[in-house]
Amino acid sequence: MERTKFILDEKDMPTHWYNVLPDLPEPLPPPLHPATGKPLTPDDLAPLFPMELIKQEMSQERYIEIPEEVQAIYRTWRPTVLHRAHRLEKALDTPAKIFYKYEGTSQAGSHKPNTAVAQAYYNKQEGIKRLTTETGAGQWGSALAMGCMFFGLELKVYMVRVSYHQKPYRRIMMETWGAEVVPSPSQDTKAGRDVLAKDPECPGSLGIAISEAVEDAASRDDTHYSLGSVLNHVLLHQTIIGEETRKQMEMADAYPDIIVGCVGGGSNFAGQFLPWLRDKLSGKKPDLRIICVEPQACPTLTKGPYAYDFGDEAGLTPLLKMYTLGHTFMPPPVHAGGLRYHGMAPIICHLYNLGLIEARAEHQTAVFEAGVKFARTEGIITGPEPCHDLKVAIDEALKCRESGEAKTILIAHSGHGHFDLAAYDEYLSGRMQDYAYPEEKVKEALTHLPKVPGT
Questions:
Q1: What is the three-class DSSP state of 100?
Q2: Which residues pair with 225 in a beta bridge?
Q3: SS3 assignment, position 387
Q4: For the sheet containing 223-225, what is the strand order?
Protein backbone atom coordinates (compact mmCIF):
# COMPACT_ATOMS: atom_id res chain seq x y z
CA MET A 1 0.00 0.00 0.00
CA GLU A 2 1.42 3.36 -1.04
CA ARG A 3 1.60 5.93 1.71
CA THR A 4 -0.50 9.08 1.25
CA LYS A 5 0.13 11.19 4.38
CA PHE A 6 3.37 12.01 6.16
CA ILE A 7 2.63 13.24 9.67
CA LEU A 8 5.07 14.65 12.22
CA ASP A 9 4.41 14.27 15.92
CA GLU A 10 4.06 17.51 17.90
CA LYS A 11 7.35 16.76 19.67
CA ASP A 12 9.10 16.81 16.27
CA MET A 13 7.84 20.28 15.32
CA PRO A 14 10.79 22.60 14.55
CA THR A 15 11.76 24.86 17.44
CA HIS A 16 13.65 27.43 15.35
CA TRP A 17 12.91 29.58 12.30
CA TYR A 18 15.49 29.61 9.49
CA ASN A 19 16.96 32.99 8.50
CA VAL A 20 18.34 33.03 4.94
CA LEU A 21 20.10 36.43 5.23
CA PRO A 22 23.50 35.10 6.36
CA ASP A 23 23.47 32.50 3.56
CA LEU A 24 22.74 34.87 0.66
CA PRO A 25 25.55 34.95 -1.94
CA GLU A 26 25.22 38.76 -2.08
CA PRO A 27 23.83 41.04 0.66
CA LEU A 28 20.21 42.10 0.41
CA PRO A 29 19.85 45.75 -0.75
CA PRO A 30 18.90 47.72 2.38
CA PRO A 31 15.53 49.41 2.88
CA LEU A 32 15.84 53.19 2.67
CA HIS A 33 14.30 56.03 4.64
CA PRO A 34 11.82 57.78 2.30
CA ALA A 35 12.87 61.26 3.43
CA THR A 36 16.66 60.90 3.44
CA GLY A 37 17.30 58.01 1.05
CA LYS A 38 19.67 56.53 3.65
CA PRO A 39 19.50 52.96 4.99
CA LEU A 40 16.93 52.48 7.71
CA THR A 41 17.99 52.21 11.33
CA PRO A 42 16.13 50.30 14.06
CA ASP A 43 14.97 53.61 15.53
CA ASP A 44 13.29 54.50 12.21
CA LEU A 45 11.07 51.41 12.50
CA ALA A 46 10.35 51.63 16.24
CA PRO A 47 7.10 53.66 15.88
CA LEU A 48 5.55 50.80 13.87
CA PHE A 49 7.08 47.52 15.09
CA PRO A 50 8.26 45.98 18.38
CA MET A 51 12.03 45.97 18.77
CA GLU A 52 12.26 42.16 18.74
CA LEU A 53 10.74 42.05 15.24
CA ILE A 54 13.05 44.85 14.12
CA LYS A 55 16.01 42.79 15.31
CA GLN A 56 14.71 39.79 13.38
CA GLU A 57 14.29 41.96 10.29
CA MET A 58 18.03 42.70 10.29
CA SER A 59 19.43 39.62 12.05
CA GLN A 60 22.43 37.69 10.75
CA GLU A 61 21.72 34.67 12.96
CA ARG A 62 20.99 31.59 10.84
CA TYR A 63 18.41 30.17 13.26
CA ILE A 64 16.12 32.08 15.62
CA GLU A 65 14.38 30.29 18.46
CA ILE A 66 10.58 30.20 18.44
CA PRO A 67 9.31 31.37 21.87
CA GLU A 68 7.62 28.62 23.89
CA GLU A 69 4.38 30.67 24.12
CA VAL A 70 4.29 30.78 20.30
CA GLN A 71 5.14 27.09 20.00
CA ALA A 72 2.27 26.24 22.35
CA ILE A 73 -0.23 28.00 20.07
CA TYR A 74 1.40 26.56 16.94
CA ARG A 75 0.73 23.11 18.35
CA THR A 76 -3.03 23.72 18.13
CA TRP A 77 -2.67 23.06 14.37
CA ARG A 78 0.97 22.29 13.65
CA PRO A 79 2.73 20.27 12.36
CA THR A 80 0.66 20.29 9.17
CA VAL A 81 0.44 17.28 6.86
CA LEU A 82 2.50 16.51 3.77
CA HIS A 83 0.41 14.64 1.19
CA ARG A 84 1.38 12.51 -1.78
CA ALA A 85 -1.06 13.34 -4.61
CA HIS A 86 -1.56 9.80 -5.91
CA ARG A 87 -4.96 10.53 -7.44
CA LEU A 88 -3.75 13.62 -9.26
CA GLU A 89 -0.73 11.69 -10.58
CA LYS A 90 -3.03 8.96 -11.91
CA ALA A 91 -5.40 11.45 -13.54
CA LEU A 92 -2.47 13.12 -15.30
CA ASP A 93 -0.94 9.75 -16.26
CA THR A 94 2.44 11.12 -15.25
CA PRO A 95 5.53 9.38 -13.88
CA ALA A 96 6.14 12.46 -11.72
CA LYS A 97 5.75 12.16 -7.96
CA ILE A 98 3.64 15.05 -6.67
CA PHE A 99 3.61 16.13 -3.02
CA TYR A 100 1.80 19.03 -1.40
CA LYS A 101 2.29 20.58 2.01
CA TYR A 102 -1.19 21.64 3.09
CA GLU A 103 -1.54 24.72 5.31
CA GLY A 104 -5.35 24.84 5.11
CA THR A 105 -5.85 23.00 8.40
CA SER A 106 -5.05 26.00 10.61
CA GLN A 107 -8.02 27.58 12.36
CA ALA A 108 -7.86 30.47 9.87
CA GLY A 109 -7.56 28.10 6.89
CA SER A 110 -4.17 29.22 5.63
CA HIS A 111 -0.45 29.62 6.38
CA LYS A 112 -0.90 33.15 7.71
CA PRO A 113 -1.17 32.29 11.45
CA ASN A 114 2.50 31.22 11.40
CA THR A 115 3.50 34.88 11.52
CA ALA A 116 0.27 36.35 12.93
CA VAL A 117 0.69 34.51 16.23
CA ALA A 118 4.37 35.46 16.44
CA GLN A 119 3.72 39.14 15.69
CA ALA A 120 0.88 39.35 18.21
CA TYR A 121 3.15 37.75 20.84
CA TYR A 122 6.05 40.17 20.33
CA ASN A 123 3.73 43.18 20.38
CA LYS A 124 2.10 41.96 23.59
CA GLN A 125 5.55 41.53 25.14
CA GLU A 126 6.33 45.17 24.36
CA GLY A 127 3.13 46.41 26.00
CA ILE A 128 1.23 47.29 22.83
CA LYS A 129 -2.58 47.25 23.22
CA ARG A 130 -3.78 47.52 19.62
CA LEU A 131 -2.67 46.56 16.09
CA THR A 132 -3.70 47.76 12.64
CA THR A 133 -3.25 45.90 9.39
CA GLU A 134 -4.44 45.54 5.82
CA THR A 135 -5.81 42.43 4.14
CA GLY A 136 -6.50 41.53 0.53
CA ALA A 137 -8.50 38.30 0.31
CA GLY A 138 -8.97 38.28 4.07
CA GLN A 139 -6.58 35.42 4.84
CA TRP A 140 -4.08 37.66 6.62
CA GLY A 141 -6.71 39.71 8.43
CA SER A 142 -8.45 36.62 9.78
CA ALA A 143 -5.13 35.09 10.89
CA LEU A 144 -4.08 38.25 12.73
CA ALA A 145 -7.55 38.51 14.30
CA MET A 146 -7.00 35.01 15.66
CA GLY A 147 -3.49 35.88 16.86
CA CYS A 148 -4.68 39.04 18.60
CA MET A 149 -7.48 37.06 20.22
CA PHE A 150 -4.96 34.63 21.73
CA PHE A 151 -2.96 37.49 23.28
CA GLY A 152 -5.78 39.91 24.16
CA LEU A 153 -4.96 42.66 21.63
CA GLU A 154 -7.40 44.93 19.79
CA LEU A 155 -7.23 44.87 15.98
CA LYS A 156 -8.47 47.10 13.19
CA VAL A 157 -8.35 45.65 9.68
CA TYR A 158 -8.48 47.68 6.45
CA MET A 159 -9.81 45.14 3.94
CA VAL A 160 -9.43 45.83 0.21
CA ARG A 161 -12.89 46.94 -0.90
CA VAL A 162 -13.35 44.48 -3.78
CA SER A 163 -12.52 41.55 -1.45
CA TYR A 164 -14.64 43.03 1.37
CA HIS A 165 -17.67 42.61 -0.90
CA GLN A 166 -16.52 39.39 -2.67
CA LYS A 167 -15.66 37.54 0.55
CA PRO A 168 -18.06 38.55 3.35
CA TYR A 169 -17.43 35.36 5.32
CA ARG A 170 -13.80 36.28 5.87
CA ARG A 171 -14.98 39.58 7.35
CA ILE A 172 -17.32 37.63 9.64
CA MET A 173 -14.41 35.41 10.72
CA MET A 174 -12.39 38.47 11.70
CA GLU A 175 -15.29 39.99 13.60
CA THR A 176 -16.00 36.68 15.36
CA TRP A 177 -12.44 36.75 16.71
CA GLY A 178 -12.99 40.35 17.85
CA ALA A 179 -11.51 42.53 15.10
CA GLU A 180 -13.00 45.70 13.63
CA VAL A 181 -13.08 45.53 9.81
CA VAL A 182 -13.65 48.37 7.34
CA PRO A 183 -13.52 48.39 3.52
CA SER A 184 -10.47 50.18 2.08
CA PRO A 185 -10.31 52.90 0.84
CA SER A 186 -12.26 54.18 3.84
CA GLN A 187 -13.29 57.50 5.35
CA ASP A 188 -11.31 56.67 8.51
CA THR A 189 -7.93 57.96 7.28
CA LYS A 190 -6.60 60.82 5.18
CA ALA A 191 -5.07 58.30 2.76
CA GLY A 192 -8.46 56.67 2.24
CA ARG A 193 -10.35 59.94 1.91
CA ASP A 194 -7.87 61.22 -0.68
CA VAL A 195 -8.40 58.12 -2.85
CA LEU A 196 -12.20 58.30 -2.56
CA ALA A 197 -12.17 61.98 -3.49
CA LYS A 198 -10.52 61.03 -6.80
CA ASP A 199 -12.52 57.83 -7.39
CA PRO A 200 -15.57 57.15 -5.18
CA GLU A 201 -15.95 53.68 -6.78
CA CYS A 202 -12.30 52.67 -6.25
CA PRO A 203 -12.08 48.86 -5.77
CA GLY A 204 -9.07 49.30 -3.49
CA SER A 205 -5.64 47.69 -3.47
CA LEU A 206 -3.22 46.32 -0.93
CA GLY A 207 -1.09 49.43 -1.42
CA ILE A 208 -3.97 51.70 -0.38
CA ALA A 209 -4.96 49.48 2.55
CA ILE A 210 -1.34 49.49 3.80
CA SER A 211 -1.32 53.30 3.67
CA GLU A 212 -4.45 53.42 5.81
CA ALA A 213 -3.18 50.92 8.36
CA VAL A 214 0.21 52.64 8.67
CA GLU A 215 -1.41 56.07 9.06
CA ASP A 216 -3.74 54.73 11.73
CA ALA A 217 -0.91 53.09 13.69
CA ALA A 218 1.30 56.17 13.52
CA SER A 219 -1.47 58.31 15.02
CA ARG A 220 -1.70 56.40 18.35
CA ASP A 221 0.93 55.58 20.98
CA ASP A 222 -0.79 52.35 22.00
CA THR A 223 -0.87 50.98 18.44
CA HIS A 224 1.58 49.19 16.17
CA TYR A 225 1.26 48.16 12.54
CA SER A 226 1.43 44.50 11.48
CA LEU A 227 2.24 43.26 7.96
CA GLY A 228 1.38 39.78 6.70
CA SER A 229 3.97 39.44 3.95
CA VAL A 230 6.95 41.10 2.18
CA LEU A 231 9.18 41.95 5.18
CA ASN A 232 12.09 39.72 6.23
CA HIS A 233 10.71 38.83 9.65
CA VAL A 234 7.42 37.69 8.11
CA LEU A 235 9.20 35.33 5.71
CA LEU A 236 11.31 34.14 8.64
CA HIS A 237 8.24 33.06 10.65
CA GLN A 238 6.88 31.13 7.68
CA THR A 239 10.00 28.97 7.37
CA ILE A 240 8.50 26.54 9.87
CA ILE A 241 6.60 25.24 6.81
CA GLY A 242 9.75 24.27 4.92
CA GLU A 243 11.54 23.01 8.04
CA GLU A 244 8.65 20.62 8.70
CA THR A 245 8.51 19.59 5.05
CA ARG A 246 12.19 18.64 4.98
CA LYS A 247 11.57 16.16 7.81
CA GLN A 248 8.46 14.81 6.10
CA MET A 249 10.14 14.39 2.71
CA GLU A 250 12.80 12.33 4.50
CA MET A 251 9.95 10.15 5.80
CA ALA A 252 8.82 9.76 2.18
CA ASP A 253 12.38 8.98 1.05
CA ALA A 254 12.07 11.78 -1.50
CA TYR A 255 13.70 15.11 -2.39
CA PRO A 256 12.06 17.71 -4.65
CA ASP A 257 13.39 18.44 -8.12
CA ILE A 258 10.86 21.27 -8.50
CA ILE A 259 9.17 23.38 -5.82
CA VAL A 260 6.16 25.47 -6.90
CA GLY A 261 4.25 28.18 -5.03
CA CYS A 262 2.21 31.32 -5.57
CA VAL A 263 3.57 34.78 -4.80
CA GLY A 264 1.79 38.05 -4.05
CA GLY A 265 3.95 39.46 -1.29
CA GLY A 266 5.76 36.13 -1.12
CA SER A 267 5.62 34.95 2.50
CA ASN A 268 3.93 31.57 2.00
CA PHE A 269 6.16 30.35 -0.78
CA ALA A 270 9.34 31.74 0.76
CA GLY A 271 8.41 29.90 3.95
CA GLN A 272 8.47 26.66 1.99
CA PHE A 273 11.40 27.16 -0.36
CA LEU A 274 13.96 29.08 1.75
CA PRO A 275 14.84 26.04 3.92
CA TRP A 276 15.47 24.10 0.67
CA LEU A 277 17.33 26.96 -1.01
CA ARG A 278 20.29 26.51 1.33
CA ASP A 279 20.99 23.18 -0.44
CA LYS A 280 21.08 25.00 -3.78
CA LEU A 281 23.32 27.73 -2.38
CA SER A 282 25.70 25.21 -0.79
CA GLY A 283 25.98 23.16 -3.98
CA LYS A 284 24.28 20.10 -2.47
CA LYS A 285 21.34 20.42 -4.90
CA PRO A 286 22.47 22.90 -7.59
CA ASP A 287 19.76 21.91 -10.10
CA LEU A 288 16.82 22.44 -7.74
CA ARG A 289 14.15 24.47 -9.55
CA ILE A 290 12.03 26.94 -7.57
CA ILE A 291 9.08 28.40 -9.51
CA CYS A 292 7.11 31.43 -8.30
CA VAL A 293 3.65 31.84 -9.85
CA GLU A 294 1.75 35.14 -10.04
CA PRO A 295 -1.39 36.41 -11.80
CA GLN A 296 -1.17 37.57 -15.41
CA ALA A 297 -3.19 40.60 -14.27
CA CYS A 298 -0.56 41.58 -11.66
CA PRO A 299 2.76 40.13 -12.91
CA THR A 300 5.25 41.80 -10.60
CA LEU A 301 8.28 39.57 -11.13
CA THR A 302 7.70 38.79 -14.79
CA LYS A 303 6.95 42.35 -15.94
CA GLY A 304 8.09 44.86 -13.33
CA PRO A 305 11.47 46.63 -13.14
CA TYR A 306 13.82 45.99 -10.22
CA ALA A 307 13.80 49.32 -8.41
CA TYR A 308 13.29 51.07 -5.09
CA ASP A 309 9.62 51.75 -4.46
CA PHE A 310 7.16 52.34 -1.66
CA GLY A 311 5.31 49.37 -0.25
CA ASP A 312 2.08 51.39 -0.09
CA GLU A 313 0.09 53.73 -2.32
CA ALA A 314 0.48 56.92 -0.25
CA GLY A 315 4.24 56.65 0.16
CA LEU A 316 4.29 56.24 3.95
CA THR A 317 6.46 53.10 4.10
CA PRO A 318 10.24 52.71 3.74
CA LEU A 319 11.63 52.32 0.23
CA LEU A 320 12.22 48.67 -0.65
CA LYS A 321 14.33 47.28 -3.51
CA MET A 322 11.88 45.03 -5.32
CA TYR A 323 10.30 44.16 -8.60
CA THR A 324 7.38 46.56 -8.80
CA LEU A 325 4.52 47.61 -11.05
CA GLY A 326 4.48 51.02 -9.33
CA HIS A 327 3.00 51.80 -5.93
CA THR A 328 0.07 53.67 -7.53
CA PHE A 329 -0.84 50.70 -9.76
CA MET A 330 -4.42 49.46 -9.29
CA PRO A 331 -4.59 45.74 -10.19
CA PRO A 332 -7.68 44.31 -11.92
CA PRO A 333 -10.15 42.67 -9.50
CA VAL A 334 -9.05 39.05 -9.88
CA HIS A 335 -10.36 36.61 -7.27
CA ALA A 336 -6.86 35.91 -5.95
CA GLY A 337 -7.00 39.00 -3.75
CA GLY A 338 -3.88 37.96 -1.86
CA LEU A 339 -1.83 38.22 -5.07
CA ARG A 340 -3.03 41.72 -6.06
CA TYR A 341 0.10 43.51 -4.84
CA HIS A 342 2.29 45.85 -6.88
CA GLY A 343 5.54 44.72 -5.24
CA MET A 344 7.19 41.60 -3.84
CA ALA A 345 9.25 40.53 -0.83
CA PRO A 346 12.79 41.96 -1.19
CA ILE A 347 14.32 38.56 -0.41
CA ILE A 348 12.39 36.91 -3.27
CA CYS A 349 13.23 39.79 -5.63
CA HIS A 350 16.92 39.54 -4.74
CA LEU A 351 16.96 35.79 -5.41
CA TYR A 352 15.11 36.27 -8.70
CA ASN A 353 17.55 38.99 -9.74
CA LEU A 354 20.43 36.60 -9.00
CA GLY A 355 18.82 33.93 -11.21
CA LEU A 356 18.30 31.48 -8.35
CA ILE A 357 14.51 31.19 -8.74
CA GLU A 358 12.05 31.32 -11.66
CA ALA A 359 8.75 33.15 -12.19
CA ARG A 360 5.64 32.60 -14.30
CA ALA A 361 2.37 34.48 -14.73
CA GLU A 362 -0.95 32.66 -15.31
CA HIS A 363 -4.47 33.66 -16.36
CA GLN A 364 -7.40 33.42 -13.93
CA THR A 365 -9.46 30.82 -15.83
CA ALA A 366 -6.44 28.53 -16.26
CA VAL A 367 -5.68 28.51 -12.53
CA PHE A 368 -9.31 27.76 -11.65
CA GLU A 369 -9.30 24.92 -14.18
CA ALA A 370 -6.35 23.49 -12.25
CA GLY A 371 -8.19 24.09 -8.97
CA VAL A 372 -11.22 22.12 -10.18
CA LYS A 373 -9.00 19.26 -11.38
CA PHE A 374 -7.33 19.17 -7.96
CA ALA A 375 -10.72 19.19 -6.21
CA ARG A 376 -11.95 16.32 -8.40
CA THR A 377 -8.86 14.21 -7.71
CA GLU A 378 -7.50 15.12 -4.26
CA GLY A 379 -10.81 16.41 -2.88
CA ILE A 380 -9.51 19.75 -1.56
CA ILE A 381 -11.16 22.97 -2.73
CA THR A 382 -8.18 25.27 -3.03
CA GLY A 383 -8.00 29.02 -2.46
CA PRO A 384 -7.66 31.13 -5.62
CA GLU A 385 -4.07 32.01 -4.70
CA PRO A 386 -2.62 28.47 -4.45
CA CYS A 387 -4.60 27.46 -7.54
CA HIS A 388 -1.77 29.29 -9.33
CA ASP A 389 0.81 26.76 -8.12
CA LEU A 390 -1.50 23.88 -9.00
CA LYS A 391 -1.60 25.13 -12.59
CA VAL A 392 2.18 25.17 -12.95
CA ALA A 393 2.69 21.92 -11.03
CA ILE A 394 0.25 20.20 -13.41
CA ASP A 395 2.10 21.69 -16.40
CA GLU A 396 5.41 20.34 -15.07
CA ALA A 397 3.87 16.92 -14.40
CA LEU A 398 2.56 16.79 -17.97
CA LYS A 399 6.04 17.62 -19.25
CA CYS A 400 7.25 14.58 -17.31
CA ARG A 401 4.61 12.49 -19.09
CA GLU A 402 6.01 13.61 -22.42
CA SER A 403 9.66 13.11 -21.45
CA GLY A 404 9.19 10.01 -19.30
CA GLU A 405 11.11 11.62 -16.40
CA ALA A 406 9.94 10.73 -12.90
CA LYS A 407 10.65 14.09 -11.30
CA THR A 408 9.53 14.92 -7.77
CA ILE A 409 7.33 18.02 -7.56
CA LEU A 410 6.55 19.75 -4.27
CA ILE A 411 3.60 22.16 -4.07
CA ALA A 412 3.35 24.87 -1.41
CA HIS A 413 -0.41 24.67 -0.81
CA SER A 414 -1.22 27.73 1.29
CA GLY A 415 -4.90 27.20 2.12
CA HIS A 416 -8.46 26.18 1.32
CA GLY A 417 -11.07 28.02 -0.76
CA HIS A 418 -14.20 27.36 1.30
CA PHE A 419 -14.99 31.09 1.37
CA ASP A 420 -14.21 31.48 -2.34
CA LEU A 421 -17.04 29.36 -3.71
CA ALA A 422 -18.56 32.34 -5.53
CA ALA A 423 -15.39 32.41 -7.62
CA TYR A 424 -15.68 28.69 -8.36
CA ASP A 425 -19.34 29.24 -9.31
CA GLU A 426 -18.23 31.95 -11.72
CA TYR A 427 -15.73 29.56 -13.31
CA LEU A 428 -18.06 26.55 -13.46
CA SER A 429 -20.86 28.60 -15.02
CA GLY A 430 -18.54 30.01 -17.71
CA ARG A 431 -18.84 33.59 -16.45
CA MET A 432 -15.24 33.98 -15.29
CA GLN A 433 -13.28 36.77 -16.94
CA ASP A 434 -9.58 36.76 -17.77
CA TYR A 435 -7.67 40.00 -17.34
CA ALA A 436 -4.81 40.78 -19.69
CA TYR A 437 -1.63 42.39 -18.46
CA PRO A 438 -2.66 46.07 -18.03
CA GLU A 439 0.43 47.46 -19.74
CA GLU A 440 -0.67 51.07 -20.08
CA LYS A 441 -1.73 51.30 -16.43
CA VAL A 442 1.63 49.91 -15.37
CA LYS A 443 3.51 52.36 -17.59
CA GLU A 444 1.61 55.23 -15.99
CA ALA A 445 2.21 53.92 -12.46
CA LEU A 446 5.92 53.51 -13.11
CA THR A 447 6.22 57.22 -13.88
CA HIS A 448 5.59 57.74 -10.15
CA LEU A 449 8.54 55.66 -8.97
CA PRO A 450 10.45 57.66 -6.33
CA LYS A 451 13.74 59.24 -7.35
CA VAL A 452 16.38 57.76 -5.10
CA PRO A 453 19.88 59.31 -5.34
CA GLY A 454 22.65 56.81 -5.98
CA THR A 455 20.39 53.94 -7.10
A1: strand
A2: 132
A3: helix
A4: 180-184, 154-160, 130-135, 223-225
Kindly state the average pLDDT of the residues 175-201: 96
370 close to 85: Cβ distance less than 8 angstroms: no
Round to whole Å and give the CA distance between 338 and 139: 8
Hey, which residues does 83 pair with through a beta bridge?
5, 100
CA distances to 88, 109, 129, 216 from 175, in Å: 37, 16, 18, 19
Is residue 172 a part of any domain in this protein?
A: no
> Longest C-alpha distance within the chain, in Å?
63
Q: For residue range 380-395, what is the model confidence (pLDDT) as tens digits?
A: 999 999 999 999 999 9
Number of folded domains in the chain?
Answer: 1
Mean pLDDT calculated for residue range 144-161: 97
The SS3 assignment for 346 reads helix
Q: Give the global pTM.
A: 0.94
User: For position 149, what pLDDT does the model report?
Assistant: 98
pLDDT of residue 198: 94
CB atoms within 10 A of CB 61: 13
Among the listed residues 176, 158, 136, 189, the one whose alpha carbon sits nearest the alpha carbon of residue 420: 136
User: Quick one: pLDDT band at residue 206, thresholds 50, 70, 90?
Assistant: confident
pLDDT at 357: 98
Question: Rounded to an integer, what distance in angstroms lies between the CA atom of residue 274 and that of residue 224?
Answer: 28
SS3 label, residue 207: helix
Residue 145: pLDDT band (50, 70, 90) is very high
Q: Is 321 part of a structural domain of the chain?
A: yes
SS3 161: helix
- Asked, for residue 192, whether it belongs to a domain, the answer is no
- Rounded distance, CA 209 to CA 202, Å? 12
Query: For residue 185, is the peptide bond before it cis, meaning its omega torsion is within 30 degrees of 0?
Result: yes
Per-residue pLDDT reduced to its tens digit, 108-140: 999 999 999 999 999 999 999 999 999 987 889
Strands 82-84, 5-6: pairing is antiparallel
Please check whether residue 353 lies inside any domain of the structure: yes
Torsions phi, psi of 416, nearest 5?
Answer: -85, 170
State which residues form the domain around 320.
5-10+67-109+233-446
CATH of the domain at 253: 3.40.50.1100
290 φ/ψ angles, rounded to the nearest 5 degrees: -125, 115
Say how far apart CA 189 and CA 187 lie, in whole Å.
6
* Burial of 399 from C-beta contacts in 10 A (0-12 / 13-18 / 19+): middle
Count CA atoms closer than 13 A to 170's CA, side-chain side.
Answer: 36
What is the torsional sign of CA 20, 238, 148, 160?
positive
Query: Three-state DSSP class for 276?
Result: helix
